[in-house]
Amino acid sequence: EIERIRGDIVTRSKKIIRASSYGIYVNIILVFFKTLIGFMSNSIAIILDAVNNFSDILSSLITIIGSKLSSRKADREHPFGHGRIEYFSALVIAVFILLTGVTCLKESISKIIHPVQPKYSFIILVFITVSILAKYLLSYYYKLRGTQLNSRSLIASGINAMWDSIITLSTLVTAIISMFFDINLEGYVGVFISALILKSALSIFKSNIS
């Protein structure tokens, strides 16, 4: 019976690692293209969005490490196993999200004080739309697998990915307004993005500390 339970724990860990790996692949692609397009269009909103996706890569790596550690066998100091490590890994993810939000807020305020007009194109709008869909699907996948596997860290990553899709949607709206109405809202949208990121971090902190 003990060996069966041990086998289930190892299998669960592998599934969590596989799910997190998919997120890493998606975010690497998004970071590369968003950084490229952000500098090409001189858009602080897209660049901050890329930074946020980079933090997601770190979050997924932390999830993988936490899953590996939590699947270790019970020992004298930990007779019930190491499952609580997953809660700590989720808290570490929250710290990364919090730092990302603070950084975004600082840069956004700077852009409000010293605005720079971005240069968008139709191709950029198409890419932003595709990235919104990609993050939404990743969020759905994370939360589904997190619920199935009872993984706090995967669910936390799913919540983060959902906020990412909302953040990128706000970037798309900003780009459309800039193209058609010649109004620069980048700094203000950046503040909005920062607020959502900070809210997400505090939510994850609250649920896992309890």
Summarize the SSE layout with pairings:
Elements (H helix, E strand, L loop, with lengths): L1 H40 L2 H27 L14 H29 L8 H28 L2 H30 L4 H24 L1
Helix pairs in contact: 1-2, 1-4, 2-3, 2-5, 3-5, 3-6, 4-5, 5-6
Structure explained in plain terms:
The chain has helices at residues 2-41, 44-70, 85-113, 122-149, 152-181, 186-209. With 210 residues, the protein is an all-alpha fold. The mean pLDDT is 80.
Which structural class do the helices and strands define?
A: mainly alpha
List the total number of helices: 6
**How would you sum up the major sheet?**
none
The whole-angstrom Rg is 19 Å
Seen as an oligomer or otherwise, the chain set is single chain
Q: List segments where confidence is low: pLDDT < 50 over at least 5 consecutive residues.
A: none
Total beta strands: 0
β-sheet strand percentage: under 5%
Give the N-terminus to C-terminus distance in angstroms: 31 Å
CA-based shape: elongated
Q: What is the residue-averaged pLDDT? A: 80
Order of helices and strands: HHHHHH
Overall helicity? over 70%
What would you say about this model in short?
85% of the residues lie in helices and 0% in strands. Helix 2 runs antiparallel to helix 5, helix 3 packs antiparallel against helix 6 and helix 4 packs antiparallel against helix 5.
Keywords:
single chain, 210 residues, mainly alpha, 6 helices
